[in-house]
Hints:
The chain is an all-alpha fold. It has one domain: Growth Hormone, Chain: A. Helices cover 75% and strands 2% of the residues. It has eleven helices and two strands; from the N terminus they run αααββαααααααα. The chain has helices at residues 2-17, 22-64, 67-72, 115-131, 139-168, 173-200, 205-225, 229-247, 250-257, 262-291, 294-309, and strands at 83-85, 93-95. The chain has a two-stranded antiparallel ribbon with strand order 1-2. A hairpin with a 7-residue loop joins β1 (83-85) and β2 (93-95). The two termini are 32 Å apart. Mean pLDDT is 80; it is low at 88-104.
Amino acid sequence: MGFGLMMPAVFTAFNRYFDTRRNAAMAMAQVLVAALNISFPFLATLSMDTFGFRGTVALISAYGLHCFPAMLSLQPVEWYMKKEPLDANSQMYQLSGNNLEENKEPVPTLCTSTRRDRKLLDAWKSVEKALDLGLFKQPSFVNIVLGLSLSMTSDLAFISIFPLLLTTAGFSTDELTLVMTTYFTADLISRIFVFLLTSRIDISSRKLFLFGALFSAIFRILYVVGDSFWWIVVISAVLGFLRSFIQIPLPLVVAEAFPTRFVTAFSLYMVVCGCVALSFGPLMSFAKQTTGRLDMVVHLLTLAHILCAV
């Protein structure tokens, strides 16, 4: 719940702070996230040896408390924008560059047969307006949200079953460690590459995301085809490299498509993504129990990437 409340706020602030070169800024942030994720297991192990389990949990809790000052630092940009006087005789000020116009559409008058029906209709209209559910009436929004949800669910589900796939294939613990290290190292290198690329070239976030989804589907098929150890290592490196092309531009795709309605658009995306993730659990279990093969689960997740690319 905390994660669901925090992420829209973080990405909304990010969307407000960066008008240009958002891909480069997001890539830099993701590089730091990946570096911390790689170093965290080592630090946790060191803390366990030094402070024990309770001390480590206390340190992690203290680390989590840093979220509060971090969230408090997400202040509106307008507070720090340069102010200019309207005229020489007026003391009123306006924010430069903040000439936003609200598009107000006339609400059609709805006739209802009974007073009760009218109250229900008014209540539904209030909910629809508050949650901006009218976005679901736009085919482009539905297309983007479903595509992002399918691809993100596929990516997270694949990385969760990846160690099990390697274990089932008969790889030893050392070989599994090497493959996983290769995967996450390639992921970190890719984030640095995306940062350097987007800092020099202005690329659409949607194109980056589609590139990552399409080629991830292709190389997952190649992953299932081969069974030798070094083949798995090479394909894992490529899949790790492609992972950043999905995770980095994901919130920016929504920001580019709906810049003025990003808060509600991204929040609704998270709701849809949660529903898609919940539905994929039973589907993966059904595929595994029906066929008795984990590679069929990989094909199911690959199909989600293909649907996103299409």
